[in-house]
Each structure stands twice: as structure tokens, then as C-alpha cells.
Design a protein that fits this description.
Blueprint lengths: L1 E5 L7 H12 L3 E5 L5 H16 L8 E3 L4 H10 L3 E7 L2 H12 L6 E5 L4 E5 L5 H13 L9 E7 L3 H13 L19 H17 L1 E4 L14 E4 L6 H4 L6 E7 L2 H8 L4 E2 L1 E5 L3 H10 L4 E4 L16 E2 L2 E2 L31
Parallel strand pairs: 1-2, 1-4, 2-3, 4-5, 6-7, 6-12, 7-10, 9-10, 12-13
Antiparallel strand pairs: 5-15, 8-9, 11-14
Helix pairs in contact: 5-6
């Protein structure tokens, strides 16, 4: 039938293209509700897509783009009786609301949702810090923390805490923040003022409740730039430890051992990505068995799933449906039917 594609701003082409093409090749018409921050990219994508479809066997009118405010257009489309499937990537709050609306709709709607993460990286006492520090840096501050797979919790075994933090702080201080058109820049701005204000509210609260390891660094004033922040956190139930911030804010925990580290890692309602840096086969096996995350990376960062190699999707509150890029993904975009005919004929009736 008609599939509604609700795409995020932080991967405005890749995720939009993946969801839209999956719905199309499975035989659906699609309505695209792109993020209001990235409507121009969505328009360029649709222009190219419709051009390709005109040269194919697809009938006209299969693709529509409806840019606009998500609170009005998005909710209207989700509720619409002719929408049969909704593919969504975005925040947990919006994803849960879509599920609630779809659950009460008549007819019922199928939901495919990727709803973010509160991803942890574990660094144990055996880890190679020459690998771990760059891995944590890129996972936390790459794209200014604006990835659903970004590291926002770092769990260090106590025996290496001081050594890691000393080197980590040095790396942050050497990180250039500014215009990403300059190739020497490591971290750019936030998407808009609203996002910056939201991140700042978490930082202000964290300053009152946790020890700041590093923060308040000088950043460009022209634009939506925000300093990287790292806090030492004792309470794993605090907001900075539980809620997706979507910015360059890192909560650091001390763990007694690998078992304690995994317990901290599993203490959120999310389960999207995670990573462990370790040279212990036993610790790596334990993480593979018990770390509750859809994508687990060993001795590399928590971001950057490789297309066609690492299907992407999480557990718990992070995802609804099969992994994007996995062998079952396309099956979600079709309606399965069973037709059974009794072929035993008793007599014959002519037309």
C-alpha cells in the first residue's frame, strides 16, 4: 500500500534513501516526510529518484515529498487511514508516539522504527590505549556527537582510569573545533539553536551534580558551536547517564571489573550500539555474550557500521523491526498472505 517514510536530519540522504528504496522495491507507493532541517537535500533526492523511475517500469505518482513541521504534517500522516506502513528514524520520544497512534488506528499499521541510543564503550585493564583513545574520541565527538550510534557513556576499569583520562584530556585539548570546510577541523557545530539549547540544559544540570573532567573550552561564537564536555558520573540512573543528549557530552564511569562494566553498560533502556576495547579473550567473549546491544564492536569505535557487512539496528527501546541492511529487512515492507485452494474436483461446471 502506501508507506510513510519519516527521515532524520543527521543522515539526511543515506537513511532516507535506504528506507525509501526498500519500500519502493517491495511494491509500495511512498510519501516522504523529511526533517524540516534538511528539506533541500530531500528535494534533490526526490528529483533524482523520480527521474530514475520515469525511465523504469514503475507507474507515475509513486513518490511524494511533503516537507513541513513534524508536529503537524507528521502526526496527520501517521493517523491517516490510507497509510499502511510507517518507516521512521529519529528520537525515542517521537518513535513511541508514532507507535501509540498506530496501535489505535483502524486498520492497523506496520511500524519500522530506529529510535536512538545511549551507547557505551568499555575499556578494560588489558586494552591497548593507543587504539582505545582514538576510538572513543571519534565515537564521541565525530559529527559533534550527532549520531544515534555515538558514544555517550565511557566505562573504564579503575586500574587504568587515571592513565586513560590524562591522555584523553590531552587529545580533547588538541581537537580543533570550527568550520568543517577546513580539513584540519575535528568537530563542527550543532544542527541548530534548538539542539544547542537542549544540549546546554544537560550540561548545566551535570555541572551541578557531577565532577567535570573537561569542558568550557573556547569555541567559535558565530554558529551553533558547543564545547565538548566530559563528566565523571557515580549515579548510573542520572539523566546524563540515561537520556540521549545528541551532542558532545560524555559520561564516564569507573568499573571494578569487566562484569561490573557490563552491568553499567546494560543499565539503560536503550540497546543500539556498543564497543569494548580489550586484549583479553575471556573479557571479549563475556561482552559478546552479555552486552545488550544490537551492534557490538570489538577493538573499534561504536559508530560507522559498514554497509553490506554490518546490518544496523538495536535492542530494547532502540529499534522496532529487523535490522537495516539485514537479510530480513525487505520482508517488513510486504504484506504476507496465504491462499489455499481445494483442487479436488467433483464434476465440472463450464463457464
Amino acid at each position: 500500500g502506501v508507506a510513510l517514510i519519516i527521515a532524520p536530519w543527521n543522515f539526511p540522504l543515506a537513511i532516507l534513501g535506504g528506507m525509501a528504496s526498500a519500500a519502493l522495491v517491495a511494491g509500495n507507493a511512498i510519501i516522504i516526510k523529511a526533517s524540516s532541517q534538511t528539506s533541500i537535500i530531500a528535494y534533490e533526492f526526490i528529483t533524482l529518484l523520480t527521474s530514475i523511475l520515469r525511465d523504469s517500469l514503475y507507474p507515475p505518482g509513486l513518490v511524494s515529498l511533503l516537507p513541513g513541521d513534524g508536529n503537524t504534517i507528521g502526526e496527520y500522516l501517521v493517523k491517516h487511514k490510507d497509510i499502511r506502513l510507517i518507516a521512521f528514524t529519529g528520537s525515542n520520544q517521537v518513535g513511541k508516539k508514532i507507535q501509540e497512534i498506530a496501535a489505535s488506528a483502524v486498520p492497523s499499521k506496520k511500524i519500522i522504527a530506529e529510535m536512538g541510543g545511549k551507547n557505551a564503550i568499555i575499556v578494560d585493564a588489558t586494552a591497548d590505549l593507543d587504539e582505545a583513545i582514538p576510538g572513543v574520541m571519534s565515537s564521541t565527538f565525530g559529527y559533534a556527537g550527532q549520531k544515534c550510534s555515538a558514544c555517550s557513556r565511557l566505562i573504564l576499569e579503575e586500574s587504568i582510569y587515571e592513565q586513560f583520562i590524562e591522555r584523553f584530556k590531552t587529545a580533547i585539548l588538541e581537537m580543533k573545533i570550527g568550520d568543517l570546510q577546513d580539513e584540519s577541523t575535528y568537530m563542527g557545530p550543532q544542527i541548530d539553536q534548538k539542539a544547542k539549547n537542549s544540549i546546554q540544559s544537560y550540561i548545566d544540570e551535570a555541572k551541578l551534580n557531577h565532577q567535570m573532567i573537561i569542558g568550557d573550552l573556547a569555541v567559535p561564537q558565530d554558529g551553533f558551536f558547543i564545547s565538548p564536555y566530559v563528566f565523571l558520573v557515580d549515579d548510573k540512573t542520572s539523566r546524563i547517564a540515561q537520556e540521549e543528549i545528541f551532542g558532545p557530552v560524555l559520561a564516564v564511569f569507573k568499573a571494578r571489573d569487566i562484569g561490573h562494566a557490563i552491568k553499567i553498560a546494560n543499565s539503560t533502556s536503550y540497546g543500539l550500539t556498543g564497543a569494548i576495547f580489550s586484549r583479553s579473550p575471556d573479557n571479549i567473549k563475556l561482552a559478546c555474550d552479555e552486552f545488550e546491544t544490537g551492534n557490538l564492536y570489538v577493538n573499534r569505535g561504536s559508530t560507522g557500521a559498514v554497509v553490506s557487512r554490518q546490518a544496523f539496528g538495536g535492542l530494547k527501546n532502540s529499534s522496532v523491526g529487523f535490522k537495516a541492511g539485514g537479510p530480513l529487512y525487505l520482508l517488513q515492507f510486504v504484506q504476507e498472505r496465504t491462499i489455499t485452494e481445494n483442487t479436488m474436483r467433483r464434476g465440472f461446471v463450464a463457464d
